[in-house]
Amino acid sequence: MSPAQPPAPALSDTEARTLVGSLAPLLHAWLPRQRWFAGKGSPVTGFVPVAVTELQAQSAAGPGLLHLLVRVEQHGAADPAPANGRYQDCYQLLLGVRHTLPASLAGAAIGRVDQGPLAGRTVYEGLHDPRVADLLLERLRATDTRGPLRFCRAATVPAGLTGRLLDAEQSNSSLVYGAGAGGSDAYILKILRRVYPGAHPDLELPLALAAEGCERVPAPVGWIEAADPSGGGLPGSGEALTLGVLQPYLRDSRDGWRLALAALTGDREFLSEARALGRATAEVHTALAAALPTVTLGRRQTAHLAEGMTERLEVAARAVPALLPYVPGLRAAFDALAALDEAGRGRPAQRVHGDLHLGQTLRTPDGRWSVIDFEGEPARPLAERRRPQPPVRDVAGMLRSFDYAARSHEPWRPDWAARCRAAYCEGYAEAGTDPRAEPELLRAYETDKAVYEVLYEARHRPDWLPVPMAAIRRLAAGA
To answer: 264: which of 75, 105, 168, 258 is 20 to 30 A away, CA to CA?
Structure first.
């Protein structure tokens, strides 16, 4: 099926249920093993198709490609409840279909289908297949439509680019496109795995920043979206679902985390880099405030922020007993935040990055910093990630990242981290408001971040627990 052919409809509800039902035994074993699957620890009890579209039929000339939006049911998960915005997770899957997998794709195999319309054929993670990667880019170049899927483009994309899947898979999957053998990488297509109704910040914010003329963030070149099918199992039917974003690939750039670790390994300071990164962060915040609506948080809103932080502390302390001795000191930070607006002064809030750390930044060889990945913390509800917040939340995330870098090095370098933190704040103050001007606000957000880190590390990386615990001791003492 070529991009020039008429649009193909999605499978009917009956066809989709039959297909997904035949794949269920394979998906039960494969899906929980994926790095981007968020439901680890809860048994998968079923799969409900939201939309199934055949992007390419299998033929002698090439593999088939199925696009699935599937709601995953899990034991203990909340039932869909549009009234409070809670629903079971919906995932985007791109499944290749072949009679026999070539050796190069053996590692991508999901399994052989025993029954249903694909009986006797092998399905696999399609993004590992260069032919599938090429098909997605061609759909974007052609601004194609396939059933509920829409391939949109904001700028011209050249032909002849070959794609490859990035090895570093996190909460999403990314394809990098270049100009063939020996050519330079040109674009990166991020495939969003968990799908939500409504504007997705990873597309919404870079588009807004591009319109504002901010060059600190790569402007989207194209994107993939889908109409939320009526009765498709997601609330807010009719809202577009963002599925993927195509942006320029900053070739030869290195992320801030690797640069910081390299500086530590070489026993070098990172002060000029941290100061420049602070300026870049402030420039992004300034552009976001100009591009999108801002609000003023009054006494009630600030108290609500503090209450949420206190609740998260209590949950974490119940799960991680090592926190218990520090709870009074940590709660004092949140009480100080709640008391800030007792005089009714209020403070500005705006759209922010939401998950800013060194790994979300890129630096070119000429020293220019860019900010990437505006998805926010994937574990938080989308509505919460899109809510205006004080910009200091991003600042606190970056300050915690310097601590993590210093703790990753042997011996631990707290002095190095402290100097980087100060330089970052100095750079931010050069292009914005000094985040240290309201120490209660900064301390509260840094404390909230450290509490989140303690819970995460205790559950997923116990060897890393000493990193946030060192910050907990400092913050509980009021430092």
So the answer is: 168
Compute, in degrees rounded to 10, the torsion defined by CA atoms 280, 468, 388, 344. -110
Give the pair of three-digit tokens for residue 423: 């330089």
pLDDT in tens, 364-394: 999 999 999 999 988 788 888 999 999 999 9
Number of Cβ within a 10 Å radius of residue 383: 11
**How far is it, in rounded angstroms, from Cα 221 to Cα 85?**
30
Task: Write down the pLDDT at residue 179.
Answer: 56
Mean pLDDT of the chain: 90
DSSP for 379-413, written as a single string: TS-HHHHTS-B-THHHHHHHHHHHHHHHHTSSS--
Looking at residue 30, its amino acid is W
- Could you tell me the two tokens for 309? 């932080």
| 254-476 to CATH, choices 3.40.50.300, 1.10.1420.10, 3.30.470.20, 3.90.1200.10 | 3.90.1200.10
Angle between the 256-265 and 392-407 helix axes, to the nearest 10 degrees?
A: 40
Note the pLDDT tens digit of each residue in 392-447: 999 999 999 999 999 988 888 999 999 999 999 999 999 999 999 999 999 999 99
Long-range Cβ contact pairs of 9-18 (< 8 A, separation 24 or more): 9/147, 10/51, 10/52, 10/53, 10/147, 10/148, 10/229, 11/52, 11/53, 11/54, 13/49, 15/52, 15/117, 16/49, 16/51, 16/52, 17/49, 18/116, 18/117
Of all residues in the chain, the percent with pLDDT exceeding 70 is 91
Give the residue extent of every domain in the chain: 13-248, 254-476
Is the pLDDT at 80 greater than 60, yes or no?
Answer: no
Which residues sit opposite 248 in a β-bridge? 187
Residue 233's SS3 state is: coil
As separate numbers, helices (DSSP H) first and strands (DSSP E) second, the chain gives 12, 18
Q: What single-letter amino acid sits at 131? A: R
